[in-house]
Design goal:
alpha/beta, Rossmann fold, 7-stranded mixed beta sheet, binds 5-O-phosphono-beta-D-ribofuranosylamine
Length: about 210
């Protein structure tokens, strides 16, 4: 039996890495049976590198766009990765890649999906739109990744009141706290689900009666 639930993080661009940091710190603080195999970055100047080094996580630069998925698939298989965690990853993954990792890629989005998701809805744009629409609530959503931006099945959401907040920046600040709270816990739950399936495998064929 596997002793660890193996995860890998994907980020792109100049990722700041605060979600990555909150997840790896939570795993280490709670001594969870989760092993962070590596972090993918796409630029050598991404601030997240410092966080990876502080947390002793191996980071790997995949800067070649053409071979990105090919190289990534090889790494995921070499390290027997069970879950791919997107944390500030802005690229679209191909249907071929998604098919190979079906139900094993998750993302966090800084709004209550399905609202305020989709193409072009990222970073401060999300909070700006939420603010302009005078929403009373916002929050964060963790979801599986499929072919559409932010449209995969929602795993968990947390909602917070925001009607007392005075700017998109204040909303972003409060929502980020929620992201840091829920992302580690969702990953922990997925790890427990993984281990429970190893202990109690679900039979795929019906048991014949009589
Ligand atoms: C977060 O707001 C997350 O919701 C979105 O990308 C941002 C990444 O921030 N998917 P960080 O790099 O984790 O600080």
């Amino acid at each position: 039996m596997n002793e660890y639930f193996n995860i890998a993080f994907l980020t792109s661009g100049k990722s700041r890495g605060s979600n990555f940091d909150s997840v790896v710190k939570y795993i280490s603080k709670n001594r969870l049976p989760i092993s962070t195999k590596f972090l993918i970055i796409t630029r050598p100047d991404a601030p997240i590198i410092q966080r990876a080094e502080n947390n002793n996580v191996k980071w790997i630069l995949l800067s070649d766009k053409n071979n990105f998925e090919h190289d990534l698939l090889e790494l995921l298989s070499q390290h027997n990765v069970h879950l791919v965690v997107l944390a500030g990853f802005m690229r679209k993954l191909s249907p071929n890649f998604l098919d190979k990792f079906k139900g094993k890629i998750i993302n966090i989005h800084p709004a209550l999906l399905p609202k305020y998701g989709g193409k072009g809805m990222y970073g401060m744009r999300v909070h700006q739109a939420v603010f302009e629409n005078h929403e009373k609530f916002s929050g964060a959503s963790v979801h599986f990744v499929n072919e559409e931006y932010d449209a995969g099945k929602i795993i968990f959401q947390k909602k917070i009141p925001i009607d007392h907040l005075k700017s998109p920046e204040e909303i972003a600040h409060e929502v980020l706290k929620i992201e840091h709270e829920i992302y580690p816990k969702v990953i922990e739950q997925l790890a427990y689900q993984f281990f429970s399936k190893l202990v109690y495998p679900v039979e795929s064929e019906a048991i014949p009666s009589g």
